[in-house]
Amino acid sequence: MRREEARLDLVRQPLWAAELVRTGEHLVVVVTGELDMSAHPGFGDRLLELTAGVADPVVDLSRVRLLAAAGVRQLYLVADTLARAGRRLRVVTGTGLALRVLRAAQATDVIETYVTLTAAGGAARPGPPVPSGLPELEQLRLEVAALRSKLATRPAVARALGVLEERYRLTDLDEAFRLLRSASQIHNVKLVVLAKTLVTLPRPRGRAWLIGALQHPAPPLSFAADRPGRTPAAVLERLVRRALASTGATAGYAQLPDEAGLRLAAHHGLDKQFAGAFARIDGEQSTCTAALAKGVAVTSTDIALDPLFSQPATRRALLGAGFTTARSVPLTSAAAECVGVLTVLSRNAFADPVPERLDRLCREAGAWLQWYRHHQVLTALQHLHARATAAPPG
Fold it and tell me: Which one, of 345, 318, 343, 308, lies nearest residue 329 by Cα?
């Protein structure tokens, strides 16, 4: 009996350890071992205990040998708790297992992750750019609100996991998470988008579900009517070329929004060095970020003097390529949601009819991108449903 009790005590002992260590100027929670089911809920409680007196704690997971879903969930809970108090959690992953797991779980969408302790220690608070004239307290409120908006996506995921577990009689939430994550990765749809849609759709009545009735034909594209099997990259590439032909502009590019800002999706007339510099626009002010934020077209008629460009490097890149004028137009859906931005660049002033032609092209592209996103979400959920209801191999 004593041997059996000793064995059970050993099983109950957590296989991980967390200690607060001073590294240079920073206090860091160093985690070692295996964050398996024993991480629930003790791991989260331990992190909150150790970081009670630390403003924006750093947790180092680079020495963790195993990171299971239970450990990731506890990180979510800690980040959420800190955010409600105006604090933030920074996680150091290294380049190994912890980073791969957090990326696969799409946890990096809502948790600040850094490869090195140096990067985490020097990181500025996240959030959208704020006017420098705002008082410090107001800036802090805006930054915390931005972080909280990311963290707010997690309740939707938790609710969707509960729905999946009950609907398909799964063994646990980990199995539900694997189903949702697989559909997300295969169809390139964000996990939280799938989760939010899943809980709004009617309950399935059969393996075919009702998704077919929710599908709609793709809206027409006057600039890509001859291209079957269209993808967002192909549509945006055609949009840029047609925009240049219609406006006489020298070069142009299309961007899609993500959590960090805007990423380059298609371009024409730009060399590799220039395209590399504009691969991602994050935290700076320019015509494209202004068009995204305002939902209206933004034009700069004199890039050299326009205060709209907040980064000297961006201004130098544009002027160095000979561009003096830029116009950015949002790609808006029928619901007035901005799903991308088109920018055309010229060495001369644009002709007057340009805005009307660009706006029409961008409305078409915005409607198509919104349709494609909706189509991909439904396809991903149908894939999930079919996989969950498939008969187990005999």
Answer: 343
